[in-house]
Amino acid sequence: xxxxxxxxxxxxxxxxxxxxxxxxxxxxxxxxxxxxxxxxxxxxxxxxxxxxxxxxxxxxxxxxxxxxxxxxxxxxxxxxxxxxxxxxxxxxxxxxxxxxxxxxxxxxxxxxxxxxxxxxxxxxxxxxxxxxxxxxxxxxxxxxxxxxxxxxxxxxxxxxxxxxxxxxxxxxxxxxxxxxxxxxxxxxxxxxxxxxxxxxxxxxxxxxxxxxxxxxxxxxxxxxxxxxxxxxxxxxxxxxxxxxxxxxxxxxxxxxxxxxxxxxxxxxxxxxxxxxxxxxxxxxxxxxxxxxxxxxxxxxxxxxxxxxxxxxxxxxxxxxxxxxxxxxxxxxxxxxxxxxxxxxxxxxxxxxxxxxxxxxxxxxxxxxxxxxxxxxxxxxxxxxxxxxxxxxxxxxxxxxxxxxxxxxxxxxxxxxxxxxxxxxxxxxxxxxxxxxxxxxxxxxxxxxxxxxxxxxxxxxxxxxxxxxxxxxxxxxxxxxxxxxxxxxxxxxxxxxxxxxxxxxxxxxxxxxxxxxxxxxxxxxxxxxxxxxxxxxxxxxxxxxxxxxxxxxxxxxxxxxxxxxxxxxxxxxxxxxxxxxxxxxxxxxxxxxxxxxxxxxxxxxxxxxxxxxxxxxxxxxxxxxxxxxxxxxxxxxxxxxxxxxxxxxxxxxxxxxxxxxxxxxxxxxxxxxxxxxxxxxxxxxxxxxxxxxxxxxxxxxxxxxxxxxxxxxxx
Length: 714
Description:
Largest sheet: 6 strands, mixed
Helix content: under 10%
Number of strands: 59
Structural class: mainly beta
Strand content: over 45%
């Protein structure tokens, strides 16, 4: 047998040889002699320095030399030189006594590579995009020898996804070390392993486990710039520039906000995003830009930029698009529109009544799929695409919420009541309609009780109901539209006490989830038959009114007390139901062919003139003690007594306050507490607004104060 390999310096090879010899014919007795070649002089064992002879008696004509017994010959090799082993086996033939020679030559090289182990590390320990990072493998031998030669291959995988692949070249091991890098690397979570190829001396090996590490996203900053600090008509161009101290250019999206109201978004191009904001509320608007972040860059937000919006664009006419019909419908009514121009409503066809949503020419049907439901109508939509409305089934009329393909049924009788409100009037409600939904998830609706009276209610984002009180006690109350984007602005209601002659309506704008009445809506030509329905973030209101002189119904747009009549050309009646921040108005009209939907866009005249705060009259009602809360309550009413509009926001400062503490104060100015009037962006000539205030008494003496109004800024 011949075999060869390489034995490293200091290595050990163990060779075991067994021989079988036979005599023919079989000998009854003989002696087998095994002789080692004396040429093995380079072996360390003294036993192999000369011929080694071992005699074994034959049995049955054959004998075995080797283990067991005798023990095998063990040859230890201490260098890399090939060693030739010649074993001569001689035994005497019993017939002629001639020796028979058996000679084997074995070329021996080392069979065993020195075992190795490999570990991997990274530097630096904390990494931020784009690095750099260096990968280092340490290769060690089990016998403590320094490893040289052979290649190390690194495998680096990003855990989140296969994006940003990192390919490293194989690296030669020098003095036990192989390093790849420094290299740039994307942000994310990673795992790395290393594999040593081995060489003629050292065995191959690989890391037993993955090393996990992460690369943080680079921090960013946003600089927001506006085309002007003072704008007419509420339109301004905004540019958000996103930068980072590291290399690379951020990508993604910048979203622009006015306080808590989202204005819109734009993609970054070369690190900057541009956006045109229209119809900003009158007064000081606090604009910010928020960067979404991307794979390698973290999100961030700009500092606020104050924009002074000088005045609204008063409508002096309308551009109409009509008819807008659902395909194949016999009747179409458009009830709402959001700031993405998505519309909602309902239509009729031979199969019944169905809701719809979408853009004109691309409407999708809405049909509540609850058991036994047979009618669906959509009334409101916010900027997130959340839709509210009503449906009918065998049990009656219910509200619904639709979002991303899922329907939720809402019954006013099952809603929990907000603290401080009396919702007993809802407990026995037999039917529920939902009419408005804002960007914060607030919903307005109407329930009908067993006596047939309507009860308006609000539902907050957590599903808790409230029934704000009105200055006019009524048995019938409707709460209709809410702005599509804002979560903390006004909604509408109607009140019809006992249906007296003339079907008198009292219409108000309310602050949701409290009892504050912001303004009263009344078309001058029809003060007792005004039905407001939709409202936007600018406080513009649309609806319809009945003209007793003609017997016709007309739409209207109310901009801070300035009313514009709205009639679709050729229509017998027009009703406006929804308005967004771009003053796109939607509704329904009837002509000789039937009932259809329409869209109208207000054409604007010059911005309204701006007055000042000293033209606003302020009056406080007498304090009333509340036994339950042990507090004192009052109402502050402000009225624009001038012939010019006064831009907000408005703060009521309670100067010289004595013997009490203002519980709902927003802050203090020169030591005097103040409250910012919610939802008021402008006061038109003759327009009034009210603010509810609450005090706790510090001593047993009368609470006194002087209310002073500030507008736009302190």
